[in-house]
Amino acid sequence: MPQRACQRPVFRFAPSPNGRLHLGHALSACLNFDMAAAAGGRFLLRIEDIDQSRCTPALEQAVLEDLHWLGLDWELPVRRQSDHFDAYRAALDRLAAEGLAYPSFMTRGDIRTWVGAWEDQNRRPWPRDPDGARLYPPVDRQRPESERRALMADGRRHAWRIDMERAIAHPAGPLTFHESGDGQTGLIRAEPARWGDAVLSRSDAPSSYHLSVVVDDALQGITHVVRGLDLFAATDLHRLLQSLLGLPEPAYHHHRLILGADGRKLSKSDGSTSLAALRAEGRTPSDIRVMIGL
Ligand code: GLU
Predict the structure, then answer these.
(1) Over 199-262, what HEC string results?
(2) Secondary element (H or E) of residue 274
(3) 105 alpha carbon to ligand 1 midpoint, in Å?
(4) How far is the CA of 209 from the centre of ligand 1 (A)?
(5) From the CB of 25, is ligand 1 less than 6 Å away?
(6) Between residues 171 and 1, which one has the greater pLDDT?
(7) Per-residue confidence (pLDDT) for residue 270, from 0 to 100
(8) Average confidence score pLDDT of the chain
(9) Which atom of ligand 1 is nearest to the CA of 227?
(10) Residue 213 Cβ < 6 Å to ligand 1
(11) pLDDT above 90: residue 198
(12) Could you tell me which residues are beta bridge partners of residue 225?
């Protein structure tokens, strides 16, 4: 197992304050809290607010209130990702210096157009990643360094992406992770290539979820990542980044998702299952635990 001997287990709940917490978040938060308590471990809260256009201080405050209402408490200080953009930048610079990351200039519209033309010509679908998004075309990866520099010097908006072909040639041996959750369990083989040239730093934010989550899990000494099954596939990418950056490997536990009446994953935009709405209806924290099957 990845866990190091004699170390107190460290768990974390890592919400993004871009809406009110719902029952799915309650499951994740309570499960982390309960598992930490059962293991005699520590429980941390991390605010994942790299998307500064959607995350607000008021929503962050509401997240803390909802979690306190549920009866949870956590160690202080709380790590807020927007306070640590320099740490993510340093990780990106390291990957770029090793030739494993490159600046990418295509907009969503450019990608759609390029893929559409490719599909018309080749009469088969261009590959999609596990979330269903089109893999990033090879256009910018093949761009000569001089052109990249000129475009950046020109002030062209760009993201940074992993050069997946080079990155997967890097790790020594196959990548795996230990999984104990509600889907597949045991030693899982990671297949990061299915994500293509994933984003490491966005054009509108100085990092991406994938990069900041692995940097923070390592910096905070997280030994157990407990989160929803919707992030199971992303673990492939996280294991690759951990390997490239020389970061330790946590154990993973991806839990079942709470589905809405329509059978779909709950979303923050549907207020009816928000903890705030349920509380206003008179539900108690114990009712919430029953509703989420704990
Ligand atoms: N911030 C992510 C979310 O709210 C969770 C990330 C994680 O647990 O790795 O979905």
Answers:
(1) EEEECCECCCHHHHHHHHHHHCCCCEEEEEHHHCCHHHHHHHHHHHHCCCCCEEEEECCCECCC
(2) none
(3) 26
(4) 8
(5) no
(6) 171
(7) 72
(8) 94
(9) 8
(10) yes
(11) yes
(12) 252
Question: Which CATH class name applies to 10-291?
Answer: alpha beta
In the chain, the amino acid numbered 83 is D
The string of pLDDT tens digits covering residues 29-68 is 999 999 999 999 999 999 999 999 999 999 999 999 999 9
Q: How many whole angstroms from its chain centre is CA 95?
A: 18
Ligand 1 centre distance from Cα of residue 192 (Å): 18
Q: What confidence category does residue 4 fall into, taking pLDDT thresholds of 50, 70 and 90?
A: low
pLDDT above 70 for 3:
no
Which atom in ligand 1 lies closest to the alpha carbon of residue 25? 4
Instruction: Please indicate whether residue 188 or residue 204 has the higher confidence score (pLDDT).
Output: 188
The torsion region of residue 267 among left (phi > 0), alpha (psi -120 to 50) and beta comes to beta
Helix pair 209-219, 234-245: axis angle to 10 deg:
60
Atom 2 of ligand 1, nearest CA residue? 15
| pLDDT reported for residue 262 | 81
Measured between alpha carbons, how far is 13 from 25 in angstroms, rounded to an integer?
9
Tell whether ligand 1 has an atom less than 6 A from the beta carbon of residue 231.
yes
Mean pLDDT along residues 135-159: 96
- Ligand 1 centroid distance, CA of 207 (Å): 14
Judged against a pLDDT cut of 60, whether residue 71 lies above it is answered with yes
Which DSSP string corresponds to 44-96? EEEE----TTT--HHHHHHHHHHHHHTT----SSPEEGGG-HHHHHHHHHHHH
pLDDT band at 249 (very low <50, low <70, confident <90, very high): very high
Ligand 1 atom with least separation from CA of 13: 8
15 lines ligand 1 (CB under 6 A): yes
Atom of ligand 1 nearest to the CA of 228: 8
